[in-house]
UniProtKB/TrEMBL annotation:
Entry keywords, A to Z: Methyltransferase, S-adenosyl-L-methionine, Transferase
The protein's name: Methyltransferase
Lineage: Bacteria, Bacillati, Actinomycetota, Actinomycetes, Kitasatosporales
The keyword Metal-binding is annotated on this UniProt entry: no
GO BP terms, alphabetized: methylation
Gene3D superfamilies (UniProt xref): 1.10.287.1350, Vaccinia Virus protein VP39, Winged helix-like DNA-binding domain superfamily/Winged helix DNA-binding domain
InterPro entries: COMT-like, COMT_C, COMT_dimerisation, SAM-dependent_MTases_sf, WH-like_DNA-bd_sf, WH_DNA-bd_sf
Entries under CDD domains matching the protein: AdoMet_MTases
Native source organism of the sequence: Streptomyces eurocidicus
Amino acid sequence: MTGAGSGEERVTAGWQERGTVARLAFGQMGTQLLRTAVRLEVFDRIGAGERTAEGLAQDLGTHPQATHRLLRALAGLRLLDETAPGTFTTTAAGDLLRSGTPGTMLAMARMFTDPAMLRGWDLLEESVRTGRTSFDAVFGTDFFGHLRAHPELSAEFNTAMSQATRLLAEALPGHYDFGRFGTVVDVGGGDGTLLAAVLRAYPGTRGVVHDTAEGLAQAAARFAREGLTDRTALETGDFFASAPAGGDLYMLKSVIHDWDDERCATILRHIRKVVPADGTLLIIEPVLPATVSPEAPDLTYLSDLNMLVNVGGRERTAADFAGLCAAGGFRLDAITPMPPPNVFQLIEARPA
């Protein structure tokens, strides 16, 4: 009896682990389900009320039974609730996939389920074997070159990056003293989501966004909406070639992880040429622990592999950042974690 009981306990204890493996094996199916739902605008069409599968199928021109099955699967993923047989409402998570919801993640969901993000992952094994980025082999160009050739996708990417930055933008001004600086230069700052939040909180500070023409495409409109046009400048350029002078704080958010060490050092050296002796470099990225802990956020490690597959960069440890700063002519002074749920950390450095 004792032996049988111990065996049952061992089998029972394994179900959680089996579930983990099963969820990973089925993970791509969930991604494709999400992609289909956002492409069909399911969450917007349901809206704040409730819809029947039959009525939604009529609107979409889709097969009624297949539509019902799609909606049930979304309910199984806790994005919808089935309130009565065949009748559905959105959950709080599903609301984030509606275009008009504050804090919407719709563009993020569309971008990260797009073939531009996914097809390179089919060759992850090859990237692991060679260390090379598989995106280039699949599409015949690098990721950002692909965006330049597809303006609609580039705009989607910009919006997705803005949505991914909002949580940080809400918290950052209260956790870092930007009032010490006259001009903040956001290098690779895209549409200016983060810089706009800083300038709203610090009315005595001016800002510059430095990015490619594609990256800056939505920035002017954002600063106009925010009433910040008079305090901001947009500098079109290539951070591998130069950095704009005139700042006393140079900020890099989610830029360093896109590139290999050599290219990162190039970016930092260009900033070092223009930053004043008493200026500051602020890198904002996740920082990997020296070893993986059970509490570590798994998305950061998936992001690390996404950098390998799609753009050729990587996530880094504190030691990695210290080495990069030194290679770029800076001395790393402090690393400060942002409060949860933000995974970003503030890596502050001074000219060496």
